[in-house]
Amino acid sequence: xxxxxxxxxxxxxxxxxxxxxxxxxxxxxxxxxxxxxxxxxxxxxxxxxxxxxxxxxxxxxxxxxxxxxxxxxxxxxxxxxxxxxxxxxxxxxxxxxxxxxxxxxxxxxxxxxxxxxxxxxxxxxxxxxxxxxxxxxxxxxxxxxxxxxxxxxxxxxxxxxxxxxxxxxxxxxxxxxxxxxxxxxxxxxxxxxxxxxxxxxxxxxxxxxxxxxxxxxxxxxxxxxxxxxxxxxxxxxxxxxxxxxxxxxxxxxxxxxxxxxxxxxxxxxxxxxxxxxxxxxxxxxxxxxxxxxxxxxxxxxxxxxxxxxxxxxxxxxxxxxxxxxxxxxxxxxxxxxxxxxxxxxxxxxxxxxxxxxxxxxxxxxxxxx
Length: 369
Ligand code: G6P
Fold this sequence. Notes:
By secondary structure, the protein is of the alpha/beta class. It has helices at about 10-15, 20-25, 40-45, 45-50, 60-80, 90, 115-125, 140-145, 165-185, 190-210, 210-220, 235-250, 285-300, 335-350; strands at about 30, 35-40, 55-60, 85, 100-110, 130-135, 145-150, 225-230, 255-260, 275-280, 305-310, 320-325.
């Protein structure tokens, strides 16, 4: 087993550090940067169907559902098709409206999650086209779908998903770009810019991983906290949910992820000097708004751990701790901003003596309801 861990103490840490490679593998052969060409075998036959779809439904569970939320922002912005993201377990039991013009994207690392599989069968029976995004080749979900794309992240052993998430987001980004260019909803210059930026993501993830020591130090300060709040807006909102989920899963600290503006409708009541608040506040279209959210947290004496874009000076002047990550397009930011949150939850869990790779009560794939 120690050989399989490749010198890392846990599979989860190994998988976090594999991300520059796994992200590259998930785009390999699908993106030719020299001539700005995108291609994805699984989607080719269905490109017209995607381009003409009235609506895209996404079904998934857990971390894969968070990747689906990122895709909602990507597809609506780049391809201008309405997207609904559904928990597979709710979708399957609520008599949903689905028809033959709908495309359902099912996202699953394992390809074996019972609720996701059942949601697919239901959507299929109503005539929808089902597109799968799975990591495990030949899995039940991969076989149950009409077409699909594998994430190629390699085996993920740690129960808490890390590299599978970034691979899913990468593949979903490519899909949004492919449909957007087919529909003409994304300008050529914008497409080229995104392709160039996507190509740089593995190196930027590598840069982000160098923050490991700094994040370990921050973890030592907050390891005994009983609650955490994670806030983000726009593309970083699903990242806030994912950061909170990671912490809950492996450290057993209660954590909530929220869209930063919703804070005033509830979570703000929880903020006092004991409350660590992780704010993902990178430079994007909602930056000015999140600056005021950070002020609101500080006014209530919350402890702010801010993930910011390199070179930012406004948020660092207010935050208690600053984690600086490289700049990229806001469309791609989740691929970078999730990494420090994975590391934060990892180090806190290790310091609390938790079984990081096999947290209590959780399973890698949930094949029963
Ligand atoms: C379990 C795992 C999570 C995962 C979720 C969905 O809860 O512990 O890490 O995100 O299932 O799994 P899937 O294999 O469908 O992505």
